[in-house]
Specification:
Blueprint (H helix, E strand, L loop, with lengths): L1 H21 L5 E5 L2 E9 L5 H7 L7 E11 L5 E3 L2 E9 L4 E4 L2 E5 L2 E9 L4 E11 L6 E9 L4
Helix pairs in contact: 1-2
Length: 152
């Protein structure tokens, strides 16, 4: 029975992230040395209700989701998911600062880091991401901005 629950959990997580990738989740990326760091932020109501419910993410116009993944380039041109220590903070234009608490999700050969957070209409968040790939000696930083619109 335990194996069945674990398989179901992986399937549900996979469904969520398949949905994210179909919705241009990896439209943003940053290359550093032999790594490709993928990132995206969006409103949680832009995801299917079934996916967010099964993944335990509140679905709302007033909730944002950050989705991060790190891949390492191989000599043959392929990439492989790499675990990392990742920290994320966000600041809005009023200099209100918040730390985001990430959850690691492993699904077959993929590793994702996600967090959901409150957002306001027309709020612009500047994300500061620190990434330390497993086995690396020094971290790298990624910064990006996202404006959220929550009004109907």
């Amino acid at each position: 029975m335990h194996a069945r629950k674990t398989t179901t959990a992986y399937w549900m997580a996979g469904l969520l992230f398949l949905t994210l990738s179909v919705s241009a989740a990896w439209a943003n990326s940053f290359e550093y040395e032999n790594y490709i760091f993928h990132y995206n932020a969006l409103r949680t109501d832009e995801l299917p209700a079934e996916s967010t419910q099964k993944a335990g993410i509140p679905r709302s116009r007033n909730r944002g989701l950050i989705n991060l993944a790190l891949r390492e380039k191989r000599p043959d041109g392929s990439t492989v998911a790499v675990p990392a220590q990742i920290t994320v903070s966000a600041v809005n234009l009023n200099n209100q600062y918040r730390e985001l608490s990430l959850r690691e999700v492993r699904e077959q050969d993929a590793i994702y880091y996600i967090s959901d957070f409150a957002i306001n209409n027309e709020e612009t968040l500047r994300f500061q991401v620190n990434v330390l790939p497993e086995g690396a000696k020094k971290p790298f930083k990624v910064q990006f901005e996202k404006q959220f619109f929550t009004a109907p």
